[in-house]
Amino acid sequence: MKYLITCIVLIGSTTFLSAQIDCKPYVPATVGTSWELTSYNDKGKLTGRIEYELVDKVVNGNDITFSVKTTTYDKKDKPIFSSSFDAKCSEGRFAFDMAFMMDGSSMQAYQDMDVSIDASDYEIPSMDAAAGTTLPDGTLTIKIAGPIAMNMTVFVTDRKIEKKESVTTPAGTFKCLVSSQNVSTKMVVNVNSATKEWYAEGIGLVKSESYSQKGKLQGYSELTKLDIK
Questions:
Q1: The pTM is what?
Q2: What would the pLDDT profile of 200-214 be if each residue is shown by its tens digit?
């Protein structure tokens, strides 16, 4: 009986470890790790930055939930918006909560108002994903109540994997999975654009580029700091 119990424990441990190994998140794995993305316009002029910190990691069976705190700074390095989002790894599938796409500079005026968020998953496949792999669409809806009521919806469509490549930023050199997608933002006016994103396992977004409908570069962001605990 003792031997049987030991075997059951070992099998259970092996299953748990296998789930951990299969889970390859696109966020740092150690609570307390911080990183920073700096944004520039099409001419390379600083427009702001976002600080990130992994503040919690919860393991529940085969699922792992990562909680990330963010602080957005303007071009004068003044903090203008704070928020948070979750990311989850479940049975080998990793996805961000679409709240990670909130634009802090746009949300600054609503920081202290009643804000409700409805966010879908934003899946990032493993580094084994082949070029041409299509990905599920994502949707983010933000509703703000109060004297300056506002509804905003972001649709991310036509997502696909372009390739794998190494990218060098001020924070280092990273092997990345590159995706492309179309982004439509509906608010007072509709704004359509296209983006490319570079993701590294164990890090997350390393670089992004935004383009107009005519294919003109509008701006870009890159990883400028990484402090792994």
A1: 0.84
A2: 999 999 999 999 989
Q: What is the pLDDT of residues 20-76, one digit of tens each?
A: 447 789 999 999 999 999 999 999 999 999 999 999 999 998 899 999 999 999 999
Closest of 189, 190, 207 to residue 198, by C-alpha: 207
Under a CB-based contact definition with an 8 Å cutoff, are residues 37 and 222 in contact? Answer: yes
As for how many domains the chain has, the answer is 1
Residue 115 neighbours by CB distance under 10 Å = 16
Question: What's the CATH number where 60 sits?
Answer: 2.40.360.20
Cβ atoms of residues 203 and 11 within 8 Å: no
Q: For residue 212, what are the domain limits?
A: 2-227
